């Protein structure tokens, strides 16, 4: 299939055709045309697929624990991963780096107040961040 449209936003589109004929003496012209086609204008992102460079947190909002999954860009990034949680004042409230096993760690925020926190993971040159909400 040939891709002919780039950058179209989702919505309804119409195809119009026009014909122009020079002066034709005593000529009868009969013309009809119909066509149907499918045009994909938007594709939903599947949030359940984990790609290199992703940081997944679930559930969000959470109470009192949240699971954090870091997917770096290769096995060497697992050793270089640092995983920290910051409050909205920029103060580090948890360093979860040593608890990461198979790219996954659970943070128990039972001693922290309700609010918004930022999870920051550094994986070999990439910095990944997610905002999480602790609700009591």
- Total count of helical runs of at least 4 residues: 1
CATH superfamily of the domain at 54-134: Immunoglobulins
Low-pLDDT segments: 46-50
Record the strand order, biggest sheet. Answer: 4-3-6-7
Choose one word for the global shape.
elongated
Fraction of helical residues: under 10%
CATH topology of the domain at 54-134: Immunoglobulin-like
Structural class: mainly beta
**Rounded to an integer, what's the Rg over CA atoms?**
27 Å
Tell me which CATH architecture of the domain at 54-134 applies here.
Sandwich
What is the CATH class designation of the domain at 54-134?
Answer: Mainly Beta
Termini separation (Å)? Answer: 52 Å
Q: How would you state the average pLDDT, rounded?
A: 76
> What is the H/E order?
EEHEEEEE
Keywords for this entry:
four-stranded antiparallel beta sheet, three-stranded antiparallel beta sheet, 136 residues, single chain, Immunoglobulin-like, mainly beta
Summarize the structure.
With 136 residues, this protein is mostly beta strands. It has one helix at residues 75-80; strands at 54-58, 65-71, 82-87, 92-95, 104-108, 115-123, 126-134. Residues 59-132 form the Secretion system C-terminal sorting domain.
Protein architecture, described:
With 136 residues, the chain is mainly β. It has a domain at 54-134: Immunoglobulin-like (Sandwich), CATH 2.60.40. 4% of the residues lie in helices and 33% in strands. The strands form 2 sheets. The chain has a 4-stranded antiparallel beta sheet. Strand 1 and strand 2 form a beta hairpin.
Write the layout of secondary structure elements.
Layout: E1 54-58, E2 65-71, H1 75-80, E3 82-87, E4 92-95, E5 104-108, E6 115-123, E7 126-134
Antiparallel strand pairs: 1-2, 2-5, 3-4, 3-6, 6-7
């Amino acid at each position: 299939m040939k891709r002919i449209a780039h950058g179209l936003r989702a919505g309804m589109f119409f195809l119009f055709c026009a014909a122009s004929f020079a002066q034709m003496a005593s000529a009868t012209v009969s013309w009809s045309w119909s066509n149907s086609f499918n045009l994909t204008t938007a594709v939903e992102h599947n949030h359940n697929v984990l790609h290199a460079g992703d940081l997944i947190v679930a559930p969000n909002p959470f109470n009192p624990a949240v699971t954090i999954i870091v997917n770096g860009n290769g096995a060497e990034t697992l050793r270089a991963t640092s995983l920290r949680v910051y409050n909205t004042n920029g103060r580090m409230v948890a360093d979860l780096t040593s608890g990461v096993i198979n790219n996954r760690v659970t943070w128990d925020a039972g001693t922290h107040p309700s609010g918004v926190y930022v999870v920051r993971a550094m994986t070999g040159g990439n910095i990944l961040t997610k905002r999480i909400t602790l609700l009591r």
